Amino acid sequence: MSFLSRIMNIKSKAHFSATPRGVRRAGDGKARFEGTLKRSGAQAKSRVGIIFAGFTVAYVIIGGRLVEYGMAKPETVSSIMPSDNLLASRPDLLDRNGQVLATDIRTVSLYAEPSKIIDPDEALEELSSVLPDLDAKSTYRKLSSKSHFQWLRRQLTPRQQSQILALGIPGIGFRPEKRRFYPGGSIASHILGLVNIDNRGIAGMEKYIDSQGLADLAAVGMTNDAKLEPVKLSIDLRVQNALHEVLVDGMQRYQGIGAGGVVLNVHTGEVLALASYPDFDPNDPTHALDPDRLNRVSAGTYEMGSTFKAFTIAMGLDYGTMTLGTTFDATKPLYIGGFTIHDFHGTRRVLTVDEVFVHSSNIGAARMADAVGLDGHKAFLTRLGLLSRMDTELPEVATPSQPRVWKRINSMTIAYGHGVATTPLQTAVAGAALVNGGYLIQPTFLPRTRQEADKVAVKVVKDSTVRDMRKLFRDNVVESVGSGKQAAVPGFDVGGKTGTAEKLVRGRYVNGHNFNAFLSAFPMRDPQYMVLVFIDDPRTGEHNSNLAGNTATPMVGRVIARVAPLLGVQPKFGPDGSATLVSY
Amino acid sequence: MVSRADRGRVADWFWTIDRYFLFVFVLLMGIGFMLSFAASPAVAERIGAPEFHFVTRHAEFLLPALAVMIGFSFMTPKTVRRTAVIMLIISLTLMVLVLFIGVEVKGSRRWISVGPLGIQASEFMKPAFIVVCAWLFAEHQKQPEIPGNLFAILLYGIVVALLVAEPDLGQTILTTSVWAGMFFMAGMPWLWIALLAIFAVGGLTSAYLLLPHVAARIDKFLTGEGDTFQVDTARQAIFRGGWFGQGPGEGQMKKIIPDAHTDFVFSVAAEEFGIIFCMALVALFAFIVMRGLSIAYREKDPFNRFAISGLVLQFGIQSFINIGVNLELLPAKGMTLPFISYGGSSMIAICMTAGFILALTRHRPETRSRERSLFSIAHGHPAE
Asked: Which of B142, B145, B300 sits opposite A15 (nearest CB)?
């Protein structure tokens, strides 16, 4: 007898002995039980019958629905807008120097007038010789229908058009249509976005333009084929091209699963270049919606790792809880609430602020955040816009994530970039505030002058903090132990901070899989441009190391070496030659 | 051939097993494997796994699942009951644990990882819960003094609380329907039925009011507005298939239907094999339910009757919800199609359910139709 039945047994015994009625019943129990059993048996039978009937109805409904689906006629009419709309223009997109990024070209679309077609079989066969991927079943249905007009294929190439003309099939014709063309292909794909077959913007700046009223015009049929005023973007195609090439090259060298970068004007917030890889060709958008083609720079969020130490130190300096002379004990790992905080490049000694930054000490950063406290830490990151969704024209912007409840341990890990996931773009924007004089300027993809920028700029850190941060950023590139030294470009005073964050895989941090970033600005004597490059999970790097200093950092160096002269930044070679001695 | 005179365990099994059930269960497993070739390569490709990742996994689970089903079918009703009690205790423990150490997927904690395997404890809970409830109802019916119904209600409360905590609304609805169906057959008074109906309506209303994703799905179903991508593609897949299907491997919609290998495998089947095939599939599920219920109708022993009808009820309701969602008869709700959908835990658990059904429907001489009551000793009846 099982355990449970024993319990039941005891219970039932207790019941019977407790009440006299029960005892009496126990006496003539057998007959009574059989009686109840029979009665309830009959009732149960009828109820089984009710359930049986219910299921019969349910399955009949399913069967009926299947028959209904089977009888349904597939639609032969495709939803295509009236032809006026097909010719509607979109404004050209230009870069800041007037180079064309996106424009309209005229194509033709193929239609049939089935009532005029003599032999649908022959027509289909001949069309298939030019358009082998035409769906035979549905095309045959369209050609043999009684209707007067059927679209067969949108946006033919000129070669296809001439071949079909040469076939001389009666009842087949062409209608002109506008099609979007991107001369640069994939170079600026994530900024420009793309349009669907009806020429509606579905991503990037194309979508932004539609949201500014163009889509509404099109919906009421007010668009026509008159040429529209082109829209100028803040993008510099030369810089964009350089950044894109460095990313493609870096992905090949370091074998990451994705990479991205952004070049920002620190004084105006203009985005000069933004690229994410893998990308797509907006002219052939087959893969545009694949999940790995997302715009990692603005729509991806990552734990930025040690890059965040720049914000932690700036916070300590700004709140005055420390100065550049303050020291932090990093002799042994920090134990807190069951967690241990180690240093990756263990120094095991007392470190100055500068050393915490250059050696990228987790313990030091954690102690700095602890000195400020939870509320101060949260308030500072909020002020830098790192905890809220960024406000810019691009529709693909992700919301950063943070712990639901901040505890002491959260604050201490966030100090070195674990626990808060931000988009790389907003990290670059916040970084710009640390070096441009302390102003947070929301990024824009449209041209913006210094005066306009000053109106939207918000002062977020003190001048003294900016001065100290410039020195720290620069030291990290100049000093021989600095993790940023491979970003040095002679004459352009590069400064920056690396970030090597261990990646979360199935909810756990794993060793060897990193997210690497380098946040930098140049020239550090008077910063003009911010450059952030990241590479996701590189398998290798310079000197066979997949740390940020050997992957993202040299990539930034290559970008700056190429774009700094184009952007008109004057190189300066110091009298002591310090800048010229560092090379890679 | 096994001799009728042979009274060994295997021979006994061979002559008493319900071959219709056995045939249909094995057939469904075969169809499920065949459909995994249709549905899952597209999904595997989408998540970046090797093309036949899910097919291989499906195959790996097939043999153990079959073994479990055959093994369970050897049980006597008493062992069924005991196994169910043990299974229920283990799976409820795991369901408590899953709330603390479970892996969170898409906002729900349902899986617990044991080594390389992810186990969904609630799948194993279902057959065990049904059998234990059948036992409680049966004991109450044999002897109204036993608070079997009360225990069944308490047990139901515990199970539903754990399911809601995960949260897993689909399993909650399924468990509730099966339990209510069994209670109904166990002779629940009509007043209680009314109360339970009010409770169910209240539960659904609060789910609608408190859980935004549930509200969105129901709104979508009622108004046809909002993000109807899944059901729209499912419908297109069935349309494309027509009566006879596009042919194996010719399906296109499976490339874009999310969960093509689990919740929407029916639509994928329709696109490749056609509506007539799907009707046959529905007929197989209908056959299980109808045959199970008619056996239960004739069955004398209350435990057997409740257990068989409860278990086939699970098959019936689960398949009805899944197919109903595919055919836009019900709001979108994640529910696997028994035997057909991909899912290790689900498949093994379904085979346990099937094994229980086979065990309970084995032909027994009428004299043995009444099991020795658990309480017979207490009343001084001689032991068997």
From this structure: B145
Beta partners for residue A260, in sequence order:
A276, A534
**Residue tagged active-site, from A109, A186, A298, A306:** A306
Buried b (16+ CB within 10 A) or exposed e, B344-377: bbbbbbbbbbbbbbbbbbbebeeeeeebebbbee
| Single-letter code of the amino acid located at B162 | L
Cα(A146)–Cα(A61) distance, rounded to whole angstroms? 35
Rounded to whole angstroms, how far apart are CA atoms B113 and B107? Answer: 17
Question: Over 80: is that where the pLDDT of A428 sits?
Answer: yes
Q: Which of B3, B11, B5, B2 is nearest to B362 (CA)?
A: B11
Average pLDDT over residues B195-213: 82
User: Token pair of A125, please?
Assistant: 């066969």
What lies within 8 Å, CB to CB, of A401 at 6+ separation is: A301, A420, A421
User: Taking a C-beta distance cutoff of 8 angstroms, is the pair A526, A201 a contact?
Assistant: no
- Cα dist from A41 to A149, B151, B192, B293, B311, whole Å: 68, 21, 19, 14, 19
Which string of b and e fits A362-398 if b means at least 16 CB within 10 Å? bbbbbbbbbbbeeebbbebbebbbbbeebebbbbbbb
Single-letter residue type at A199: N
The three state secondary structure string of A383-411 is HCCCCCCCCCCCCCCCCCECCCCCCHHHH
In this prediction, residue A168 carries a pLDDT of 87
Token reading at A249: 């090259």
Residue A578 has pLDDT above 50, yes or no: yes
| ipTM, two decimals | 0.84
Contact A26 B242 (CB under 8 A): no
pLDDT digits (tens, 9 = 90+) for A314-361: 999 998 888 888 888 888 888 887 788 888 776 778 888 888 888 888
pLDDT of residue A346: 67
Closest CA relative to residue A552, chosen from A502, A503, A518:
A518
Q: pLDDT tens digits for A50-76?
A: 888 888 999 999 999 888 888 876 554
Report CB contact under 8 Å: A507, B104: yes
Instruction: Return the biggest CA–CA distance within chain B.
Output: 68
Nearest CA in chain B to A32: B143
Q: What is the pTM of this model?
A: 0.61
User: Cα(A480)–Cα(A469) distance, rounded to whole angstroms?
Assistant: 19
Q: Are residues A322 and A316 in contact, defined by beta-carbon separation less than 8 angstroms?
A: yes
Q: Evaluate if residue A224 carries a pLDDT over 70.
A: no
pLDDT of residue A312: 92
pLDDT higher than threshold 90 for residue A531? yes
What is the identity of the amino acid at A129? Answer: S
What's the Cα-to-Cα distance from B148 to each of A11, A213, B144, rounded to whole Å?
A: 11, 68, 8
pLDDT above 60 for A77 = no
Quote the mean pLDDT of chain B.
82
Residues of chain B in contact with residue A74, where contact means CB-CB under 8 angstroms, are 239-240
Q: E-assigned strands of chain B?
A: 103-105, 108-114, 117-120
Is the CB of A70 less than 8 angstroms away from the CB of B242?
yes
Helix A308-319 crosses helix A374-383 at what angle (to 10 degrees)? 110
Q: What single-letter DSSP state applies at residue A177? A: E
Query: Looking at CA atoms only, how far is residue A295 from chain B in angstroms?
Result: 19
* Local structure of A464: helix, strand or coil: helix
Which residue from A2, A25, A48 is facing B297, i.e. has the nearest CB?
A: A48
For the segment B186-200, the average pLDDT, to the nearest whole number, is 83
Is residue A306 flagged as an active site residue? yes
Q: Which of A1, A2, A5 to mutate to test the interface with B (most CBs of B within 10 A)?
A: A5
Query: Rounded to a whole number, what is the distance in Å from the CA of B46 to chain A's nearest CA?
Result: 9
* A476-527 tens-digit pLDDT: 888 877 788 888 888 888 999 998 888 877 667 777 788 999 999 989 888 9
Q: How confident is the model at residue A425 (pLDDT cuts 50, 70, 90)?
A: very high
